[in-house]
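Lecture 7, part B: from sequences to assemblies.

Below are the input chains for today's worked example.
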Amino acid sequence: MLWLGIAILAVAVLIILILPSLLHRQQDAPPRQDFDTAVYKDQLAEVDRDVGRGLISESEAATARLEIQRRLLSVADVGTPHGGTGGRGRSIAIPAVSLAAFAAAVVMYLNLGSPDAVDFPYASRIDLVEMADRMAAIDDAVATLEARLQSNPDDPEGWMMLGRTYLTMERYVDAQQAFLKLYDITGDILIKAEYAEALILESDAQVTPEALSIFQEVLNVEPLDPKSRFYFGVAAAQQGNLDGALQIWTDLLHLSPTDAPWVSIVRQQVQRAADEAGVDVSTLKPTEMAAKLAVTSGIPSADIQPDGMSTPAAPGPSQEDIENAQQMTDDEQAEMIRSMVQRLADRLATDPNDPEGWLRLAQAYEVLGETEKAEEARRRATETTP
Amino acid sequence: MIAELGIAELGIAELGHFALILAMFVAAAQVILPLVGAARNYEPWMAFGRPAAVAQFLLLAFAFGSLTYSFVVSDFSLAVVYQNSHTDKPLLYKITGVWANHEGSMLLWILILSMFGAAVAFFGANLPPTLRARVLGIQSLIAIGFYLFIIFTSNPFDRIVPPPANGAGMNPLLQDMGLALHPPMLYLGYVGFSIAFSFAIAALLEGRVDAAWGRWVRPWTLAAWAFLTGGIALGSWWAYYELGWGGWWFWDPVENASFMPWLAGTALLHSATMVEKRDTMKGWTIFLAIVTFSLSLLGTFLVRSGVLTSVHAFATDPARGVFILILLIVVTGGSLVLFAMRGPAMRNTGVFQPVSREGALLVNNLIMTTAAAAVLLGTLYPLFLDALDGGKVSVGPPYFNTVFIPLMLPMIAAMAVGPMLGWKRADLGAAMKRLWLAFILTIVTAIAVWAVASDGPVLAMVGMAMAVWLGVSILVELTERIRLFREPFASSLNRLVRTPRASWGMTLGHLGLAIAVAGMAGAGGWKQEAIQTMAPGDSVEVGGYTFTFEGATEGRGPNYYLTQGAFAVTREGEPVVTLYPENRRYPVRSMPTTEAAIHTMFTGDLYAVIGDPEGTDGAYVTRIYWNPLVVWMWAGSVIMAAAAGVSLSDRRFRVGVPRRRKAPAPAAAVKA
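Predicted structure of the full complex, as structure tokens:
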């Protein structure tokens, strides 16, 4: 279709350019001086008109006439050679140049234009129509769900679905309300993490202190919750603490099953942060704490490298320990953690100048629910921090 | 769905792109054949200029039309449409959006350039074939520079794949009728001077500039000058009502960019008269034509390169800026070199005494070019300093007012006398004697202004006095010309009716300036303003008027939210008007605009602006202005532009085409 249009344009333009030269071939234009003469004659007439109107006096008119007549004489002197008609080479110049212009335009257009592109009038955009259809379908579904929950509010799955849908529709405040409602019904602490995520999305992905304290609350109960850990890392990164963020995410990966859906996203995040901080990802090791947690939870960890496991930095449980741990009962597991924590505590008692150790210990106590000991350890960490 | 609308498959935008490219090659043909033809005196090649100019214009009109179509149907696969439009925009602003952006406005620029070329082809039958061929060739040569610029650095037909879902919207400040018309009008002026330039270069190539040339070039200069005057007035009017600061001229570099060609163009307009009437000042006139168009190009460069926002903006897109800079250097430098080579050969046959009409026109030329140079210096100096890392300086109104006003006062003083003087030699004393009435009225005005507004600035008083001096002297000249009171009234009326249109043009043009000067003096000197927080019920008195704030309401327009305030204005207890200023917020660009409420009266404008809310009790920041006589300025500008139109319609510009004849007969000319 485009080429049909181009052909029509070309024919029209070539007719305009070439036809006049074919029609007016041998006609002579009047010589140059006739054009000047026409103007000067009119100037003379103008002087007469001005005299007639009394605009200028007769003596002024006389000098003006004299001047114009002098110009008329000088025009006659100049005389231009008459226009030539030339030979055949010259007469084919106009069609040749016109066709060359068209050919050059086609070549340049093929280089610069998009001959295959069609127009995309907004009203007939199929992609937009489909998008609008999808949006309308979602709106309908949401309306139905809202109505159902209105009459039957005791439907945790319904609230969850509504909350998630609101999130995808970027209706974050509505999503927060839905998650709060869901938390009221179920009392499931993980719902609070969903709520906190909606808070973050509402504030342009900034992890707010409010959200952070909720994640802390969640982790106290569910130390493995990936969402909370992930946003802890984001918060650290947003405060400029890239190393801290990397450590948190490394731990998260270590605490995640290899096939967990978030693993690839976290890996990308780690890669990006590591690039920015100038850190080699292969040097990243989970903390001792995370390593122990992974063992006790029996997680086949994802870790940084897609293949293989990294070795924990701190002296951690051996392969044997892990295998044992996997076969242990809950009580036995708790006992094992306690003994590991005790080992750390004993080491710190003899070598107290290790703030990071104290911090790990504090986190461990927090995980075990021993708040007082955790606070004590945290205090020691602060004291020993240089 | 696309298949249903067959038009979509055609690819209108692509066809427009092709038309643009083809137009460039037609332009190239229009340079080569007519210029070579004129040099070798080969008629068919010279004649080719006319159809080529028409074809070029039609192709560009098609390209511009297809871009307009893409804007109207919101085809976001074009980058320029995506960046500057939005489906929520009213249709009118979708259309004006075509040139409210860099790429589209450059396409408009070149469309107008080709339109003038086509106009020469169409109306230029009375031009000698060689001159016409050269004018069209040069005009097309300028165009090629701009074609290359558009196609390679600012192509409006560039695509985005895949097309985004919606556009980024249009700067809300530009969604306005005044600004929609301002660029086309301004471009008609800027680009119109390209014809005067082409005539100048053609004359240099031709080796002859004579009185006839002066007559041929003058209508084009008049038309360009009229459009430029209108364009500048529109721009200043827009700044006045849209920016919400009650001001109408800020000596902003963008304003200066359009003002410099106006000053040089005004000089050109007057010096071309001397070439036509007296066959003198030919070299100077050619020079002015080159300078005027160069200043137009400079204005385009300043506005389009981003140099003005900062030298660093220039660095971010160097291709565009450097391109126009090179074009500017080639056009200006090349034409000045040609001028230096050919200019000295031009002999001025007409002689005149210093005190004469020619002398007065020279005073005009001298002052106008000095003023243009002063504005050029003030506009470019900060740019040079910044570019050389000399730090940021701001050359603002104090500089321009200090330099410009002292230049304009003697010019207006001389303007009153000039039309009284005859050609060749005149008696200055006699002319001054005839202006006794104007002189007395000027003194009376000065004293009256002093008595009424003794606390106002002296400049306002001087300005009013000068306006009266000019206005009265024009009327004196007119009454003398028609011998009013000296001959029977019917005879005078007869003379008035039969006055040539060109004389009317001069009288009206100068009168328009007198009115505009009065407006500038009044609005510049006696403007009053009050900026304050007003709660509903609060009143403020400005310029003898009491503005009572009656509160504000929220609402929404087609693509914006608005706050509308209401001010009841009274004078000595009598209600005058209620003003409804608005504050609009456009969500797509998250940008606010102020819509000042203006009540225009003969004596001045009441002007109210509503700003941001202050506190919770319905109070707002408000700005109230009293702008005395400000509308006179635009009325004067409109009269000036219209006067050029009247002058343009003078019968001497419709001299017919000489009849074809078998053999040249120079003797016939001598006898005539």
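Note for the exam: Chain B has 23 helices and ten strands. Keep this in mind when comparing with the next example.
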